[in-house]
Amino acid sequence: MGVTHVPLANVIPGPSTVTSQSYYVILNANAGTANATGISAEAIGDMFAGHGMRATIDARTGHSMAARLADAMASDADVVVAAGGDGTITAVASALVGTGKTLAILPLGTVNALAKDLHIPLNLSQAIAAIETGEEHRIDVG
């Protein structure tokens, strides 16, 4: 966390205020919890809307992660949300280094190690609420 030679990304794990921001959600529907519960892009979109949050939900399975990340970077979203497991979160965090965009996490994997370390609620609705009221922290991504 204070290491200057390691790339860092911002992450939103818990309380503050970010509601006027826009969000680009990269959903990995094949991640452990997402797959097991059958969570849909529509359901996640409804949860964001229920909190008054403007979000684009990218659940495309026929596109590479690189293409989806490029679309997220090109969007007007202030925050890119990694909705998946640790692999999805790592890919998104790495892509955000140096961009000015912020990472938020919806823990939908099997282990959710980073989300647990950051005290992000594992309940999807609570995690979205935490994004709405989140505070930024810098994390080591490399």
Topology:
Blueprint: E1 8-15, E2 22-27, H1 32-37, H2 41-50, E3 54-58, H3 65-74, E4 79-84, H4 86-96, E5 102-107, H5 113-117, H6 124-132, E6 134-140
Parallel strand pairs: 1-5, 2-3, 2-4, 4-5
Antiparallel strand pairs: 1-6
Distance between the termini: 11 Å
The percent range for helix content is 25-40%
> What is the strand tally?
6
Oligomerization: single chain
**DSSP helical segment count:** 6
Question: Summed up, what is this model?
Answer:
The protein is of the alpha/beta class. It has helices spanning 32-37, 41-50, 65-74, 86-96, 113-117, 124-132; strands at 8-15, 22-27, 54-58, 79-84, 102-107, 134-140.
How does this model look, in words?
By secondary structure, the protein is of the alpha/beta class. Helices cover 36% and strands 27% of the residues. It is built from 6 helices and 6 strands, in the order E-E-H-H-E-H-E-H-E-H-H-E. It has helices spanning 32-37, 41-50, 65-74, 86-96, 113-117, 124-132; strands at residues 8-15, 22-27, 54-58, 79-84, 102-107, 134-140. It starts with 7 loop residues before the first strand and ends with a strand.
